Amino acid sequence: MTTRKQGAHERSPYARAGAGERNGPANPYERFMNTEMILRDQLAVDRTILANERTLLAYIRTVLALVLAGATVMRLFEDPSLNTLGWALMACGAVVAGVGVWRTVRVARSVRRALSEPPRADGEPHYD
């Protein structure tokens, strides 16, 4: 079986001429690494912020459902084991509220940091 050398027209779009690398550069996103944001990038940031707010609202909706379900179980049934279930549902609601706030703050900080810092040299995103 013979192997054929790739011609210039068959190269990966990420390959640099004369780079000598078989699969292109180490970072295929180098061409996107300018500090100026275009409209598409600004809209993507806005979508991320709005998605983060929607996610927080979904967490709040879940917390309300858990707390109300726990309170309902406690009010409708006088059985001590079901009373424990009601408290457990309310505690789960508190845990979900904490996770939701923590996640929202984490994503908001990540977005804020990504907007304030220049792009990293290795092309990786700014995650916590």
Keywords:
single chain, 128 residues, mainly alpha
Query: From the helix content, strand content and strand pairing, which structural class follows?
Result: mainly alpha
Global outline: elongated
The span between the termini is 49 Å
Supply Rg.
26 Å
Task: Count the DSSP helices.
Answer: 2
Mean pLDDT: 77
- Uncertain spans: 8-20
Can you write the helix and strand succession as a string?
HH
Number of strand segments = 0
Residues in helices, as a percent range: 55-70%
Strand content: under 5%
Explain what you see.
- The structure is a single chain.
- The chain is mostly helical and 128 residues long.
- The chain has a domain of 80 residues.
- 59% of the residues lie in helices and 0% in strands.
- The protein has 2 helices and no strands.
- Helix 1 runs antiparallel to helix 2.
How is the secondary structure organized here?
Elements: H1 39-76, H2 80-116
